[in-house]
Design brief:
alpha+beta
Length: about 210
């Protein structure tokens, strides 16, 4: 089986050099130095493998975001709709009739930004607004039937994208794919400003003197 690049090959090198070390012990000292991987940081091999996986995943995140947005932006009903408007309609489609303040908190934007988004959605006929029946000092915003129908079409588009991804995986890998997405979302929700730090310096290769020398 072909090994992945990165620290998998470093682990393989370590195993080979350990075997070479024991062979020298059996055959007697030689004048050739032994190249071994020395883990001077105390980092566990599992952590090293994780760092290699992280390096593979890093460029995928912005690519996923870009491709998801491009697919939605190409939809005929979304012509001229901004990314902020797409996020706002998506949030309202899930949460229903809400105040502008709740929309701002849900999107993680300021109240003026949320107010501008609502105004633009109203102008496009994608949202309506009116006083809160329970507190007329508050303004509620909700999607129009046209926007709700559009969101159903976009949901069908997202379903097709996920289905296409699942077909590229073996059946036993598909639950792991979904759990990985859930884990990423959960990690970002828990503490996005204080991620787990890297384990420290990576192992280095050093040249040692001959055995018995």
């Amino acid at each position: 089986m072909q090994r992945r690049n990165g620290w998998s090959s470093a682990s393989a090198s370590l195993a080979r050099n350990c075997r070479r070390y024991h062979q020298h012990r059996l055959d007697g000292p030689t004048n050739r130095p032994i190249l071994r991987i020395v883990n001077t940081s105390g980092v566990e091999p599992r952590a090293i493998e994780d760092e290699a996986l992280i390096e593979r995943a890093l460029p995928l995140l912005p690519e996923i975001g870009k491709l998801l947005y491009v697919a939605v932006a190409r939809h005929p009903g979304m012509a001229g709709v901004s990314l902020g408007q797409i996020k706002a309609t998506g949030w309202l489609a899930i949460h229903g009739r809400r105040t502008v303040g709740e929309l701002a908190a849900g999107l993680g934007v300021s109240l003026p930004t949320a107010s501008e988004l609502v105004e633009s959605l109203v102008v496009r006929g994608l949202a309506e607004r009116g006083p809160n029946p329970a507190d007329r000092r508050q303004v509620h915003v909700w999607l129009t039937p046209e926007a709700a129908a559009l969101k159903r079409q976009l949901r069908a588009l997202r379903s097709a994208q996920i289905r296409a991804a699942l077909t590229r995986l073996a059946p036993e890998e598909r639950p792991v794919f979904v759990r990985s997405l859930e884990a990423l979302v959960a990690a970002l929700r828990d503490d996005p400003d204080h991620p787990i730090p890297a384990p420290g310096p990576v192992p280095r290769a050093v040249e040692q003197s001959p055995v018995g020398g």
